[in-house]
Amino acid sequence: MAENTHDRINRYIEDTIAAERNFENALASFSKSGAQQSVQRMFSSASAKAKTQHERLTALLKRRGGTPSEAKTVLAEMLAFTPLTAQLGQGAGEKNAQHLIVTFGAAAAEMAMYESLAVAAAQEGDTEAVTLARTLQSEEKDDYDQVWAILRPSSREAFEAEVAGGKEPQQVIKRYLEDVIAAEKSFEMQLQGFSKEGDDTASQQLFAQHARETRTQYEQLTARLHALGGSPSTAKSILAHFFALAPKTAQIGHDKAERVTQNLMMAYSVENAEVAMYESLAEVARAAGDSATTQLALEIQQQEKQTAEKVWAQIDSAARRSIALAA
Length: 327
Ligand SMILES: [Fe+2]
Ligand SMILES: [Fe+2]
Known about the structure:
The chain has about 325 residues and is an all-alpha fold. The chain contains 10 helices and no strands.
């Protein structure tokens, strides 16, 4: 049964509603965790905003004759942040900083999601849908900017609280490196998977190339960890879980072109989370007086920024191909 353009766009709107609902809940739980009140307040207002967003999307969907479904996409799963229990063993302030990192990635995911929706709705000529997609996209950009503005102070405050509580600065840096290495390893596997999926050579090559770069990154990070007398652990933080992404089964029902678009959206999200992760690591290493780790973090961060830009540049054409395949 062929799906027409109108129904396909309704399905995209259903996807965004599911994603915003999950994100609203995740942000509400972030607003109650940790120790840093300014961060908690920011999450609380972002959660309230996500609620009005899925309400506006639901109104749009109804006007278009659709109904919200229970079906969940990989993006919705990603924004649900289910494995929050993975944070055992961390300081309260560190939880706030980690929540900022994953929220930065989530806001980027939503910016990409609305880009794809705006492109699809423009193909159908639904200007009201285009306008709503662009409005919500700029609201996500606001969240993204707000998170960025408090990420460094939050990371530094978390580090200082750990040291004040009796932790050795170098022990803290080693733990951060372990988290980052686990996250990079998770994501390398995802990138290899992405490089074999879909039907688009340009994105496959980009994913394969960055999988190789990612391997080099965690080798460099592992060498740094060894130099500090540590060794990679098997414990996984929320970062590693976020980077391992959602179960692949969530993508059932999407055709190959749509899978390309979804992989690009997820990659854009993870690359941004990495940019934030290295911003945080660089700040903490700076606070610890560890210039070698600071420098390594900033070098890798540049690679993540460049990859994020390359991924973004492919989203519009992928979204256009996805919608062109509808009947
Ligand atoms: Fe990376
Ligand atoms: Fe990356």
